[in-house]
Design a protein that fits this description.
Layout (H helix, E strand, L loop, with lengths): L14 H14 L4 E2 H7 L6 H13 L4 E4 L5 E4 L5 H11 L12 E5 L5 H15 L1 E2 L8 H10 L4 H4 L5 E2 L7 H12 L3 E3 L3 E4 L1 H7 L4 H15 L5 H12 L9 E3 H10 L18 H7 L18 H16 L3 E6 L4 E5 L3 H6 L14 E2 L4 E4 L5 H10 L1 E4 L4 E4 L2 H9 L6 H9 L6 H13 L9 E4 L3 H9 L8 E2 L4 E4 L4 H10 L45 H6 L17 E2 L8 E2 L18 H5 L6 H14 L2 E6 L2 E11 L5 E6 L11 E4 L6 E4 L4
Antiparallel strand pairs: 1-3, 2-3, 2-20, 4-10, 5-8, 6-19, 7-8, 9-11, 10-11, 12-13, 13-15, 14-15, 16-18, 17-18, 21-22, 21-25, 22-23, 23-24
Helix pairs in contact: 1-3, 4-11, 5-16, 11-12, 12-13, 17-19
Pfam families: Helicase_C_3 (PF13625)
Organism: Paenibacillus terrae
InterPro entries: XPB/Ssl2_N (IPR032830)
């Protein structure tokens, strides 16, 4: 049976499905959970069979997904794209109101970094030019590491609070690791045996995205790659996103009330509370005792009612969001921590559709001093070209480049067509190119390539006599260009034919080439290549290709473009997430498998309310235990649902279990019934 994966809202779920989903969600967020553990979560509220059927329905509707380990153990998890809707569900169902607004505005504000997308593009450009070679031990060469340290847009103090773990921590600074890991996890870099290499197909798609689209993929990667793989912190990360819809006029979210509401709803585990607070196991009781506002004074959490490690993780996450340019964090006069988003975070998390799909190339300003001012609306495939033939002066909302003789020469040496440089400047300069700048650029591009080094195949003979013999052979006529006593230039395409002919006259060449040079280094996406862009007949540097839309780039080609925020892509950071290692289940079990040998069970047990002899009643109860099903009992004038756990022998025999409420948040204590305490009974199963 296949998975339907519909997009129904949570209000479309059956009551049992909603109860199971809510309990799974509160306990585990989007973290993996064992199937057996879910039966324990609903114990006393639903029977095991009801829970299994609810899980079946949730998987069929796409609210749960499953993977299977190699030894057959099944793990279930809630897909992260479903999480925002589930927090909305909690807000709607909750009896307490989440108040994240306050009249106390921040006095100290740490503003978000700007221009991360442009910074990453610049890093990729420098990697394309300089390379990132690896040592024999697989670590980055010291000199290359120093250059990367200078390029990274991050600062160590903004990332240490994430508590990231990675190999060679004694060599790699955290800010450089995060930069490289982000590029790897987005599919823009790949680690090979001797170096890191740019993924040209991924880069070609990436530079055609808008800044909004890039930031969306960065946010998704940030949320699940650099946040702790632990339910309480995952709840906080996503609740902070959902709280953006409840923020005040200035957009500030006060963290204290948010954490207090999360405690009331059970999203924060007891392990996150201070030792004193853990004495109360009831989250509602805890909230009633500690109703004072949350405060952070300096770096301590003395008045916070949560353990210091949890607060450090919260503050570390807010600091990282600011470093990634997602928002600002601040402190009020009373020391309360708060945060403000500067991106439409819920739209980014919920939408699979690409916003601003048509990416216009934009225009820039060419200054008389050879500087180029690039406003924020200039497309990133245009910026990639500027990165190739210009030197970057500053990077911010307005990026400044400078065009020089050396930068033009380097671009052409790296494979860019000389004519493309003045053509691009003429087409996209908003106010035109100053005459003296145009003349200089045309002179620079004209000076490059008037002479050139050529890579040719040289045939070298052992003696002059051997060379004369080869030159006289009629089968080699027109294929050898003699340049010395013993040397010839030959066409590489004819090397195989020349080898065979020489072998017939006893002059067979050695297989290995002598003095092989390193391959020529090329800048990605500047030469005509196949399989990199949808329209491979045109150079990616053609000025006209700036009109291509993102939609055409990503879907208008027969080539399948990579997903940027893809789970499990190899990076440098240990994420603690393992789901991608296991095989995803695309089929559902047959619900009838939950009730083996049902044909051997008397039909009257499931169809009718009846009074049975004590021995038959015991058999019915034992069958319910085998199926993990519930039993309907008539006690007096009431009909109740009983979930049996175990039958105890004796005269009379007894059964322990629960009176099932079928309601979330209400589970009655385990109790024992004696045979004869009920009149009629029926086995409660989804078939009759």
């Amino acid at each position: 049976m296949g998975v339907t994966d519909t997009e129904d809202g949570w209000k479309e779920l059956a009551s049992d499905e909603l109860l199971v989903l809510r309990r799974c969600f509160i306990r585990h967020a989007g973290q993996p959970m064992k199937e057996e553990e879910l039966l324990w979560l609903t114990r006393g509220a639903l029977s095991g069979a009801e829970t299994k059927l609810a899980l079946h329905g949730l998987r069929d509707r796409g609210w749960l997904e499953a993977v299977t380990k190699s030894w057959g153990e099944r793990m279930l998890y809630i897909p992260v794209y479903r999480l925002p809707d589930l927090y909305d569900m909690l807000l709607e169902q909750s009896q307490s109101t989440m108040k994240v607004m306050d009249t106390d505005q921040p006095l100290t504000v740490h503003e978000a970094m700007t221009g991360l997308e442009a910074e990453l593009l610049h890093v990729l450009s420098r990697i394309a030019v300089q390379g990132v070679p690896l040592t024999a031990k697989g670590t980055i060469h010291k000199r290359s590491l120093q250059k990367l340290n200078e390029l990274t847009p991050f600062h160590p103090e903004d990332l240490t609070g994430l508590g990231l773990q990675y190999a060679h921590a004694e060599l790699y600074p955290v800010q450089t690791v995060v930069m490289m890991d982000l590029l790897l996890s987005l599919g823009l870099l790949v680690k090979e045996a001797v170096s890191f290499r740019i993924q040209e197909a991924g880069l070609a798609a990436w530079v055609r995205l808008s800044a909004w689209q890039m930031r969306k993929h960065i946010l998704v990667t940030l949320m699940e790659r650099y946040g702790k793989a632990e339910a309480s912190m995952q709840h906080f990360r996503y609740m902070l996103c959902v709280a953006s819809a409840h923020a005040g006029p200035e957009g500030w979210i006060h963290i204290g009330p948010l954490l207090q509401w999360m405690t009331q709803t059970g999203l924060i585990t007891q392990g996150s509370l201070s030792k004193e607070d853990r004495k109360s196991s009831n989250p509602l009781e805890f909230a009633a005792i500690h109703a004072s506002p949350v405060r952070i004074e300096g770096n301590t959490a003395s008045d916070f009612n949560f353990n210091g490690q949890y607060i450090d993780m919260v503050k570390g996450w807010l600091t990282a969001l600011t470093a990634f340019g997602m928002g600002d964090w601040g402190l009020t006069a009373s020391g309360e921590l708060c945060f403000r988003w500067n991106v439409s975070v819920l739209d980014m998390l919920r939408s699979d559709d690409e916003k601003d799909a048509v990416q216009e190339p934009g225009t820039f300003y060419v200054q008389p001093d050879f500087e180029i001012l690039v406003p924020p609306d200039v497309a990133y495939n245009v910026r990639w070209k500027l990165e190739c033939f210009c030197e970057r002066v500053t990077g911010d909302r307005m990026v400044v480049y400078r065009i020089t003789r050396d930068s033009v020469t380097e671009a052409i040496e790296l494979g860019m067509e000389a004519k493309a440089i003045p053509a691009l400047l003429d087409k996209l300069s908003r106010t035109g190119v100053p005459d003296h700048v145009r003349v200089a650029v045309e002179q620079w591009v004209g000076d490059v390539g008037r002479t050139a080094f050529a890579t040719v195949t040289l045939l070298r003979c052992g003696t002059r006599e051997d060379a004369d013999t080869a030159a006289r052979h009629p089968g080699l006529a027109g294929l050898l260009e003699r340049i010395g006593e013993r040397d010839f230039i030959i066409p590489a395409s004819s090397a195989a034919k020349i080898r065979r002919t020489l072998a017939t006259i006893g002059l067979s060449p050695r297989r290995e080439l002598e003095g092989v040079d390193e391959p020529v280094h090329r800048y990605p996406l500047v030469a005509e290549t196949e399989g990199i862009c949808p329209d491979s007949s045109n150079s990616p540097f053609d000025v006209d290709d700036t009109e291509t839309t993102v939609g055409e780039t990503l879907t208008g080609s027969t080539q399948e473009w990579p997903m940027f925020s893809q789970e499990g892509r190899a990076g440098l950071v240990y994420t603690g997430r393992t789901l991608h290692f296991y095989e995803r289940e695309h089929t559902l079990p047959d619900p009838s498998d939950y009730f083996p040998e049902k044909s051997a069970v008397p039909a009257s047990w499931t169809k009718e309310w009846r009074s049975y002899h004590a021995s038959t009643a015991r058999q019915l109860m034992e069958q319910a235990i085998r199926w993990q099903a519930a039993v309907g009992l008539r006690i007096g004038e009431k009909e109740v649902k009983w979930i049996p756990e175990a039958v105890a022998p004796g005269e009379p025999w007894s059964v322990t279990g629960w009176y099932a409420t079928g309601m979330d948040g209400e589970t009655l204590p385990r109790t024992t019934l004696q045979a004869g305490e009920w009149s009629d009974m029926r086995l409660l199963v989804p078939f009759t």
